Amino acid sequence: MTSRSSTGHVKDLSLSQEGVNRIEWAGREMPVVGLIRERFMREKPLAGVRMAACLHVTTETANLVIALKDGGADVVVCASNPLSTQDDVAAALVHEYGIPTFSIKGEDDETYYSHISAVLDHQPNITMDDGADLVSTLHRERSELLRHVIGGTEETTTGVIRLTAMAKDEKLAYPIIAVNEAETKHFFDNRYGTGQSTLDGITRATNILWAGRRVVVSGYGWCGRGISARARGMGSHVIVTEVNPVRALEAVMDGFTVMSSIEAAAVGEVFITATGGYHAIGRDHLEVMPHGAILSNSGHFNVEIDLNALEEMSTGKRKPREFVDEYQISDGRKIYVLGEGRLINLAAAEGHPSAVMDMSFANQALGAEHIVKNHGQLGPGVYPVPEDIDAEVGRLKLASLGIKIDTLTPEQQNYQESWEFGT
Ligand code: ADE
């Protein structure tokens, strides 16, 4: 039974205690966000700031938005994907933490956009987005609200690509910090987070054995690198497909088999798209895939697999287990699609582990603080996370792990900065 009001729209408020338990469990693995939260409680850097956060509603996101609230923000939350919400977390945010939350796992597109609209009704001063649906809806449908906005942050590669296109067209109306571009974000979250959680999602959906499987990974960006490395670690034969020649070469020298996507389609058993692009698996690929092929997507949007072509090629469809759709192809083959082609790590599993989201969300919190501190200084555009924030997140994470590192001596520093030294 769902409940809808100005305090949120969630599946079932009675799930909230389970949500609290899991949010606290995730918090144990998020010491950097924890430290930021403690400072935010003392300093209130976000006092009076209305924030709308459109993020995957998970235990990790809960720890972030609780820190923002403790920093003085008046924050509301909606989902950044219809299938990624953890309903117990959404319930806990509303019921236990007093954070209005609009998100229900499995919501249809209409409800998804009504939830985005609900957080825009909050008239945010800061947008916090993952994939840029919030920013895009704000600019296209609610532009009268832009006058309230001082800035925003964006979590993911796909969102940064969309925002950069908006800025190029001179349509982006305010400054947005590209959290994804921080080294403490994409080196770890995209690579180790996506790598582990994608295999986790596919395993939970199917319980397949990875050892000995031919796994095709489309895209060798940070996510594709992580997925390929982890699949190899599980004993799979990994084939990489890429359109970028340098990345393809990197995959070759990392020891993977690289081939064209159409060649790979004919020999793969498990397919994982991580391109951030459109129809990485299209009709031509579907036509040559072996019987029993398993298809999944780890990119932000559900457009990497051409599901319309698959529907057209099939005579029937059934659900042999949760998160698995079996397509009966007219030539007798069966092809399986996981999680409706949506990001499998959040659809069928819990997304990236908390320890890695700790760094991503530390950048989010500090990015929001940066927007407030620099209000009026930044024009419309997409901005990198300032280097000092990135380095601070790295330092805090190392400290939380009890790891000490060296600093350069004055002599070494001098050497780094001079050009007269030589043989
Ligand atoms: N994106 C990927 N994994 C996530 C998680 N666990 N929480 C929020 N956003 C995510």
CATH superfamily of the largest domain: Adenosylhomocysteinase-like
Strand content: 15-25%
Structure summary, number of beta strands: 17
Biggest sheet strand line-up: 1-2-5-4-3-6-7-8-17
CATH topology of the largest domain: Rossmann fold
- Which structural class should the secondary elements be placed in? alpha/beta
The CATH architecture category of the largest domain equals: 3-Layer(aba) Sandwich
Give the overall silhouette. globular
Radius of gyration: 22 Å
Amino-to-carboxy terminus distance: 75 Å
Fold and architecture overview:
The protein has 423 residues and is α/β, with parallel strands linked by helices. It folds into two domains: 3-185 and 352-400, Rossmann fold, CATH 3.40.50; 192-347, 3-Layer(aba) Sandwich (Rossmann fold). Helices cover 45% and strands 18% of the residues. The chain has helices at residues 16-28, 31-43, 59-70, 87-95, 109-120, 133-141, 157-168, 183-206, 222-233, 245-253, 261-267, 283-288, 307-313, 344-347, 354-373, 387-400, 410-417; strands at residues 3-5, 8-10, 50-55, 74-79, 101-102, 126-129, 151-154, 175-178, 214-218, 237-241, 257-258, 270-273, 294-297, 314-321, 324-329, 334-338, 381-384. Strands 1-2-5-4-3-6-7-8-17 form a nine-stranded mixed β-sheet, sandwiched between helices. Strands 11-10-9-12-13-16-15-14 form an eight-stranded mixed β-sheet, with helices on both faces. Helix 2 packs parallel to helix 3 (59-70). The longest helix has 24 residues, at 183-206. The chain is globular. It binds adenine (ADE). Residues 55-56, 58, 60-61, 346, 351-352, 357 line the site of adenine.
